[in-house]
Structure formats: structure tokens, C-alpha cells
Amino acid sequence: MNFKNTCMNKTASMYNLVSCEQLKKLMETDVQNSAQAIADYKNILSRIQQ
């Protein structure tokens, strides 16, 4: 989960440096998917710990 979080933060940080609109759209999708994956991981972990 730490790796996924690091990758998401890197993509979000680099977003403003990109000029290609297609790449920006891909980066937005990646950040959204990563955020959802992290939320899913947290949900699974919370169920396991109960």
C-alpha cells in the first residue's frame, strides 16, 4: 500500500509539469484508480483486523 500511495503522489505532483492533454487525462485516471485501490486495501485490512 505504501508503494501505491507513493506512486499516486508522484503522479499528482508531476501533473502540473505536463503539457500534453492526453497524458494529463491518463494521469488523472491513474490518480483516481490509485485512490480507489488504496481505499479498497484499507477496507479489506480493516475487515481482517476485526
Automatic annotation (TrEMBL):
Keywords: Capsid protein, Virion. This is Spore coat protein.
